[in-house]
């Protein structure tokens, strides 16, 4: 169930005030949220690979199972690779930022 327009405006206002009052907290909260989302995508990709493998092994029963398994595995690899690439880019950006601030 989504938020009403009024509730969304209130939430946006609270976020804006919090960002003004404590920007470091907001940055940390956004990093944690992003990391959790990325982890979920990686776990989902791993589960998708297993499901795809099971379907692919079903090729002995019917060719449609094999094709579906291949499609699921391919999609899982794409999602996993994208999530991993995003995580590595964020880690590199954090590392670069910490190197600049320590200099």
Structural features, described:
It is a single chain. With 103 residues, this protein is mainly alpha-helical. It has 3 helices and no strands. α1 crosses α2. It is elongated. It starts with a helix and ends with a helix. 5% of the residues are buried. The mean pLDDT is 78.
What topology emerges from the helices and strands here?
Layout: H1 5-21, H2 23-57, H3 63-102
Helix pairs in contact: 1-2, 2-3
Quick structural gist:
This protein is mostly helical and 103 residues long. The chain has helices spanning 5-21, 23-57, 63-102. Helices cover 89% and strands 0% of the residues.
Overall outline: elongated
Strand count, sense and barrel status of the largest sheet are:
none
Structural class: mainly alpha
Taking the alpha carbons of the first and last residues, their distance comes to 48 Å
Mean pLDDT: 78
Number of strands: 0
Pattern of helices and strands: HHH
Helix content: over 70%
Which properties best describe this structure?
103 residues, mainly alpha, 3 helices, elongated
